[in-house]
Amino acid sequence: MEQEAPAGWEFFDSVDFPTDHIDDPMGRPRVRHVVTAVVVGHEGAAWLPRLSEALWALNPRPDRLIAVDTGSTDETAELLASMPGVEPVVSVSARTGFGTAVARGVETVGFAPIPSPYGPYGDDGHMPVVEWLWLLHDDCAPAPKALEKLLLQATIAPEVGIWGPKLRLWPRDRDLLEVGVTTSLGGRRDTGIENGELDQGQHDQPRNVLAVSSAGMLVRRDVWEKLKGFDPRLPMFRDDIDFGWRASRAGFQVGVAPDAVVYHAQAAATGERALAGTRRHAYQLDRAHAYYTVLANAPGKLLPILILRFLLGTIMRSVWFLIGKTPSGAVDEWTALLGTLLAGGWTQARKDRRTLDKVPYDEIKGLFSRSVHALRHNLEETTSTISERIREAWADEPEEQVVTTARRAKSTARVAVDQPRWRRQLMRRPFLVAWVVLALGTFIAARSLIGGGVLRSNLLLPAHENLAALWHAAASAPPGVTPPAWLGQFWAFSTVMFGPSGAANVLLLGAIPLAALAAWALLRAFIVNRGARAWGASAYGIAVFTNGAITQGRIGTVVAAIALPLLGAAVHTVARRRRVVIQGSWRAAWFAGICQAVLFAFTPAIGLIVAVTLAVGGVLGLGWRRQGRQLVFSVVLGLVLVLPWTIQLVLHPSLLGQEAGGRPTTAIGPGDSLPHLLTGTPVGGPTPWWFAVPLILVALVSLLRESRQKYELLGWFVALVGLVGTLVASRLGGGSGPLMFLMTAGWVVAVTVAWDSIGKTSEILIQAVLGIALVTTIATAGFWLVRGVDGPLWRGPAQDLPAYLVSAQGPPANDSILIVRKAAGSPMRYSLVKDGGPRMGSVEAAPKPEQVKPITDVLSTLGGGGSGEEGRQLAALAVDYVYLPAPVDATLQSTLDSLPGLSRASANDGDAAWLVDRSNGDGKSPLDDVTHTLWRILGLIGWIIALIFCLPTVRRTVAVPHGTHARRDR
Q: Is 0.90 surpassed by the pTM of this model?
């Protein structure tokens, strides 16, 4: 009795319905096709009703329909029994794989019989009969024409023994999933379909492929029996590729019929259905079956290379999982590889398949994916994953729902629709326009510093020659002296910035756009008005110039200007989540600790202020809840990451007034006048102090409003802390430049928040106040462009020495040069130059007075007229040359000329040089360095751990591209 069609079977459009005949367009004799369909179901109650509708719409329908239930606990068995013309449902255990379930169903029920009117050979012996097995998943739905188109292609190309349809996304989307599938010899499944690619007929040419998906696979009976079905060792994943590979080896062709469409839900791959019958992770199982498939079918001569390739790939993916804080993924990688290699199932499979080798590998290798394609897909997936996880970097816990307020709605930029698209996009993104202007302005302002040489100033020593020299400086110092922590951080940055000199150029010359970008990352967290956000970020960037950090070459302040907003964004992420069950973000806390470590290293004074503020605020303001603990943790992490420099700061508090790059900021300290101190514009800076007055006045006016915002008060708190710190540091004689910048940053934040809270107002007074801030910023930017990055910062050679003395410091001579500076009426100063001269970090790692006492004693004697033994003493101190730069003291020059053991050497005009006779013996320098390799290695490990924990977590998924299916029983 014919079953009643289910309601809703009109799911398919009339255009999907087939014609009545399956004719060969080439006019070849008609063939009688007998089709046995097998549906395997497991917990498929959510998808089987749609499959039933699709089977009702099929014309022609399969001659026999077999249903197999693999231990389902829902209504799957009942739904299978209600399908049109289905045979009694075959039940097997939940541990039965897809291929085994198909074989069990066929064995129990049998193939469809050939109808008697046609005889055993069809049409009384005149019409050939071909028997087919059609495999269906319980979460797929063939279009009404699917079987017709498959059989039509089978009629046109009778030499093809396996056909597969085009797979599209369930329920009836245009997204392509598969049009045939292949693999690389590295085990990478490749469909040739881009993620999200729509079906526009671009893949609609029938062609031979390595394999087709088992969702809709049509297999000729003799092929199925010859190959003995799917490999029972592959209950899920890769069984279709293994089957197609074996068919190709045995001389059977595999083809895809794109006109036949099957819609596939990919229930297990999307997580809608859990895999049953195994305790192994889906990813681990997929990788293991990928290795098995390649090892069982690849030519024997390639096995050593393939195993080595698997090993290298496993190492790389394991490192990726460890970086992504998913160690279980790395465990799965090694478990899959070692388990497959050691289990030995693939060796037995190779023996069983020797009889299949009728077609050599060279004739079918064109069906495999090339390694370059696999590499491209891996890069695309990695890039996509990184981009996606960066967007989610600080959203690992559920956020509270953001309520769209009227002010937020009004802040959305409204642009006339008749404007060109590019103009509309720019008007909606004012910061993008501002940032491009800042970036272009950087090249214009740096016009005087473009050329050869290195950046230098009175406050900036030259950068090291290469990464090796920088690493040695970061790990070496005189006995009892700790090398500065910022050198190690600068070395890490230099590795991606074309060396130390390139890193210094990027930080100093690109400081304004970099600082503006960092400020935008902070302001976008709590500033709604796009215009206010663009002004605040731009003004913050230009503040780096007004502070004199660029023109004076104060690389410590520049780095602090970039790190401070990033730290603020991380702290905001930790502290703002107060109404959710799970508060804070440990990822943001780790990142905050990294930013604090940078501040401790480059600007210890700012690092100390920020650390105390966060620790006190975390304990008193947030309590010892998760958020408070995270802020305290970030402070502790910052201190740990700069060990042993932290101990040096405790033992020598005077280092707190110093910043990275060169000598202490002597031009910014006790000599600053009160107007300079109050406005945050140091003496010697590029801008007059009254440039900051309008900004301060606007900040004061905004403070007088009744509706003050908490972030506005926070900005004023930062400004006042910077002001107090500046006054204290100035009176103690330390450098106050970084603290002056902290003042300006606080004012910028206060004005930006006030601008945002006011919104688009029509009040003339408010518009005038905002106009003052805007005009002041534009005027300062114009001053920056006109003046440029000049002043104490200049570009030139790393050492002001004759060329032969510069080259003598390198191997093999490795000479030491004693540079003595003494002008008339001034004290004598000296430096012992070796290994390329004093470079970045030399001030912080200067030797102790007792270590240089032998040299000091010799020079003291020379200043008193000399005793005649100074030449021998200099040779004993391993000094090779004595050099006096201009202006040369005549008395000291005469004394050196008369000393035995010293002979005049060539020098620049106005300078003088002497060669020390060291022929009587080898001297020993008092300034031998001690290498702190252990500290640097431990520090590097600590930084790697911190970076890993602040990165987003890698999601471990089945390593197959979009359009494949992860299943056990479909």
A: no
